[in-house]
Design brief:
Growth Hormone, Chain: A, 16 helices
Length: 476
Amino acid sequence: MDVATAVPTGGSRGTTSPRGGARTYGLLLWPLQFLAGLTTSVATLSIMLASDAYSPFETGSTVLLAIGYGLTYTAFSPASPLGGRLTDRQGPQQTLVGSNAGYLAVMAFALLLQGVGYLPGLLAWVLLLSRVACQSVQLTALDSSIPALLPKRLFSNANGSRLLVTAVVAGSEAPIASALEPSLGLAPIILVAVAAVTASFLVARRAGFPAHPPARPVHDAVTGPDAVDRGYRPVRAYIRSRPGLTSLLVCWAALNFVLGYAEVALTSITNGFGSSATPNLVLGIGLVGMLAASAWITVRGTPRDLVRRMFGASLVLGGALVIGSTGANVVATSLGALLFLGAATFVMATLSTLIHVKTEPGLMGRMMGLKTLCVGLFYGAGNVVGALCAGFVRKLVGGNPAVSTGFLTHLVGTGRSYGRGYAVVTMAVGVLVVASVVLARRHAPLREVDTDLPDTTEEDLPAVAVPGRAVGQQSW
């Protein structure tokens, strides 16, 4: 069957939603996988702090700073396509078990090095990058487990819970590591990580996943029996034949780039206020927005008419960047952070749900691997661009100790030139985001993705491929 006219098909109803799947995901799998990710992240960050592994990148050089930000993603990005192929080949359960086994190996090696008292900065980086690679595979498999375990009506709730994990880990891993490493030392922190990963490993092995691969009544040129053996070629063909899905992935990549840039810019803007406590205060308020939005989605799910709501949240996101950059005002920056991370959470959950629903089950793992790859590439690129902006923003404000005269004073207020320069750039990014959303609303494949692309989860009744039917038409 020709790829251009192939109609994606679903399997028999309920084949990927075993009895108790929601309980398996919500009460057993997700909490323990979250705990494994958090504890191993705290452990490796503690090792980095104890070995001063970050010090070579903290010399004031913007190039070294950019390299430091980008180095982590050199392991995260290549591992995500591998995680996708493994997930489609052996199922999300076995891939989760494998990623947890990788965590255990990393932690065991760290415990051995700590026991012999030999932990140079280079080996600390090896441990960190190894953990990040395992995390990339874990996230891809955990993402793929949502359609395997849950009915379609709970996809949004599950994506909200995953973002809740992201908010907690992002906001707590560095403070926890900074607080525990000097007081407890490395051995107890690593042992806690080993215990948490062991528990998540055992639960993942015994979780009630459906048989893999699921039974499929129809095979087409995209998702035929040998689709896994052909790597990502079927995924590329699948995406090319569905313009709406292409648009969703572009939006996902753009969102992660903005988030990566904002992570660097927010710290620089708040450092410009001159108080060491201000960055933590603003970030904490921003995380409240992310926690509140993800908790709301976890309980209530996302509303209908997802695309229209996503456009609205994206406009709020762009506006929040402008608000947070206006004036040397902690209140305005905190409000901007609150709105920005809250809106970003809603956009991320909406995009994740749409990609889940619109992806053929036989390609789910590789599509989630591609989605995770976008995080590594574009979030990392945003970090790097944000770091490289440091030299540009000094020139932007003339290299003066403070911005005190002229148009910039009215635009971004007075204060240290470094933070105010970042404020100008961030305001421009916010305006660009708003303009991009306005243009995206005119793009029919994205605007109509909810109705143009058929749902293709195994929960749906089998569909019969009709020769000549356009891809954008419903198949049942």
